[in-house]
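Section 5: illustrative case.
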């Protein structure tokens, strides 16, 4: 079994961490580019390979969750081989910047391609794909007119009808962090406690199981990252579950990013910047997002037709990095409210 097969079989993270995966020509001309990525192997591998070929360099990468990659960058310090950190949560990027693991870059190309609310104002990181975390509902038992906001799911009429993913998932921590920024802690805690009181089942370990529970009739409504429904709808076009854009009359639907930044101790800084610019370019943006049913961060690029079919929505335009600032408070609030 090749190392690549090992990765694809998703052996424990440590086995993956032990070795960098080299991609590209064996005798590459330039310095290799090293990427630490929380974006999953199958979502990045072919693009990394293509970039390496185009540039005549080796692209090596490590995949793991965001938090262990941040720990690893911290432990390695100046000796880290990483040139680039790619995350699937804006809070992780904010934390990496706070921990002095990223360096600011100025790039007119990146600044023109990526809207201001999806990148760090000082250039430490840039969003590359956007996901909305919004309401999902049973098309058999709920009419879209019955839905409006995240807070509404705490109303008594949803008692025994709501499904949620675990409060330990970073996506939910980021959602609650956004509420804390927008509404304050007290109102957020009231909202979360209302949700917990309405649960039809114990929280699920991932969004896909939660969506399947809605489809199966275990509950009527839930909260999901948009791309998980995209994947399920692709496999099962008749799935009786649809997305609803939350908070359109208020601040807009919560969005998060998968994005990247150049590491503080990058050995190949120029190539890392060039790679980010390449990822933000229109043709690559389209594919980077499409492979995971996401929205391109580059506003001039269309998502997949299946994603476009969900309709346009107003996103919450607060800078996504601010999620990071209130994530620690969100984790404590979620715990207090009993969201397991
Ligand atoms: Fe995900």
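Designed sequence:
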């Amino acid at each position: 079994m090749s190392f690549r097969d090992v990765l694809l079989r998703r052996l424990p993270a440590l086995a993956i961490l032990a070795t960098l995966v080299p991609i590209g020509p064996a005798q590459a001309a330039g310095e290799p580019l090293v990427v630490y990525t929380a974006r999953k192997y199958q979502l990045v591998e072919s693009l990394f390979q293509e970039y390496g070929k185009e540039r005549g360099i080796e692209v090596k990468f490590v995949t793991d969750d965001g938090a262990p990659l941040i720990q690893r960058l911290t432990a390695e310090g100046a000796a880290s081989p990483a040139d680039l950190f790619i995350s699937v949560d804006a809070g992780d990027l904010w934390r990496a910047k706070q921990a002095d693991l990223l360096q600011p870059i100025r790039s007119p190309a990146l600044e023109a391609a990526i809207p201001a609310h999806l990148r760090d104002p000082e250039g430490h990181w840039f969003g590359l794909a956007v996901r909305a975390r919004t309401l999902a509902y049973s098309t058999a038992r709920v009419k879209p007119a019955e839905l409006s906001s995240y807070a509404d799911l705490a109303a008594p009429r949803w008692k025994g009808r709501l499904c949620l993913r675990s409060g330990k998932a970073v996506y939910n921590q980021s959602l609650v962090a956004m509420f804390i920024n927008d509404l304050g802690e007290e109102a957020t805690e009231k909202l979360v406690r209302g949700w917990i009181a309405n649960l039809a089942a114990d929280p699920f370990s991932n969004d896909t199981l939660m969506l399947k529970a809605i489809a199966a009739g275990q509950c009527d409504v839930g909260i999901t990252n948009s791309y998980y429904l995209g994947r399920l709808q692709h496999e099962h076009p008749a799935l009786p579950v649809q997305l609803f854009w939350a908070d359109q009359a208020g601040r807009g639907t919560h969005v998060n990013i998968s994005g990247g930044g150049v590491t503080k101790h990058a050995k190949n800084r120029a190539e890392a910047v060039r790679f980010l610019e390449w990822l933000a370019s229109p043709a690559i943006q389209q594919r980077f997002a499409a492979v995971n049913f996401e929205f391109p961060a580059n506003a001039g690029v269309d998502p997949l037709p299946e994603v476009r079919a969900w309709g346009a929505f107003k996103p919450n335009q607060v800078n996504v990095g601010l999620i990071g600032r209130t994530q620690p408070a969100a984790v404590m609030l979620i715990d207090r409210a009993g969201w397991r």
